[in-house]
Automatic annotation (TrEMBL):
Position of the signal peptide: 1-26
All residue ranges annotated as the LysM domain in the record: 31-79
Keyword hit for Magnesium: no
Transmembrane portions of the chain: none
Keywords: Signal
InterPro entries linked: LysM, LysM_dom_sf
Protease among keywords: no
The protein's name in its UniProt record: LysM domain-containing protein
Originating organism: Aliiroseovarius pelagivivens
Length: 366
């Protein structure tokens, strides 16, 4: 799925957004940066923000960066400002306020239509969590999409922390209409043997267009033989930790599955990193956003755990509707229209950067 390269991505524990005051370098943050030979997203982030975090830069340049493992010299990247805005652009708050004002001024239909019932869960900040403004940026994007591109649907949002029940029970039984947010495989790709999980998502659910792409890294001990693996095949025979309930789809697409690796499935990211530290697992594989948060909470540094600099995956998150829902296609079409308009207006990026700033401020305050 992704070209393998020996171009070093960087030692990256990556990812809570380092956009809060005092963490950015005046020389590079809030500027456009031209990639030089040997640059990586992580090394650029270290210089600009004082951290190896690169997910914010990836978000801001998603239209031109297709593989975070491979940057071409001469590529011009927009490095977000401290408040999450782009160089020479409006702040996230200004973009959001302008779009809200525009929606309030548009004429709405007087016809009654029942609220669309959205469900998500806690414990996945900054993506979804009741403690964050609007329930996290994936929840904010979902609800906002229902009020853009001519949509004006009422909605309700519920947090059900039993994530597995969303797709196995709540959507199939019609208790909710849309679940936020899930890894969605490329259902046109039959080059590998589909797992039950992939088959279920491709055959039983309608999915919106991709909403957000997450980078998932492999975290090992600095002295591990896997730290310099340059292909996914080199992880065959390893013990890999990924939390219970987290999708394996991105790994399966790369040929990594339960037939050629041993998979540990604890409940938390902390337990996964502990497994690597105590030798129970060779590597932990999950989102760079969560990895950086968890390492910070555990007091770990790059001297304790490192991200493999050559191998990572991308996972597209989407909103899912069960195919038995009589209005399922309509809901997906509405949200897709809203999502497309939000990307064009800049509101999509503004909501993400605003929530990441809020989340990072909380992390720094603790």
């Amino acid at each position: 799925m992704f070209k393998q390269t020996a171009k070093k991505l960087a030692i990256a524990t990556t990812a809570t957004v380092a956009l809060s005051a005092g963490m950015a370098s005046a020389q590079q943050a809030c500027t456009n940066y031209t990639v030089s030979d040997g640059d990586t997203l992580a090394t650029i982030a270290i210089t600009a923000y004082g951290t190896s975090n690169y997910q914010p830069i990836f978000n801001a340049n998603r239209n031109i960066v297709t593989n975070p493992n491979d940057l071409d010299p001469g590529l011009v990247l927009a490095l977000p400002c401290e408040d999450g805005s782009l160089p020479d652009g409006r702040s996230a708050q200004e973009v959001i306020a302008a779009e809200e004002s525009r929606f309030e001024s548009t004429r709405r239909s007087n016809a009654y239509e029942p609220p669309i019932r959205l469900v998500t869960g806690n414990g996945w900040a900054p993506f979804t969590d009741e403690s964050l403004n609007g329930g996290g940026f994936m929840t904010r994007i979902a609800t906002t999409s229902l009020h853009r591109a001519g949509n004006s649907r009422d909605y309700s949002v519920s947090f059900v922390d039993d994530w597995g029940a969303h797709l196995s029970t709540l959507l199939p039984l019609g208790a909710f209409d849309v679940s936020i947010a899930w890894t969605m495989p490329d259902c046109t790709n039959r080059s590998y043997e589909w797992s039950e999980e992939t088959t279920t998502r491709c055959t039983q659910f309608y999915a919106t267009v991709p909403v957000y792409d997450t980078v998932r890294g492999f975290y090992t001990l600095p002295e591990s033989s896997y730290v310099n693996a340059t292909t996914f095949a080199e992880f065959e025979g390893a013990t890999v930790c990924r939390m219970d309930g987290w999708s394996m789809i991105d790994l399966e697409e790369q040929g990594i599955n339960v037939s050629n690796v041993t998979v540990l499935r604890p409940k938390t990211a902390r337990e996964c990193l502990d497994a690597v530290l105590n030798g129970t697992a060779d590597a932990a594989s999950f989102e760079v956003q969560l990895a950086a948060d968890t390492m910070s909470e555990m007091g770990l540094t790059q001297n304790d755990l490192v991200e493999n600099p050559f191998v990572s995956t991308l996972s597209s998150l989407a909103f899912l509707v069960h195919r038995t829902n009589p209005f399922g296609r309509q809901y997906v079409a509405m949200m897709n229209k809203g999502l497309n308009e939000m990307r064009e207006s800049g509101e999509w990026y503004a909501i993400i950067s605003d929530t990441l700033r809020e989340h990072n401020d909380r992390m720094n305050a603790n």
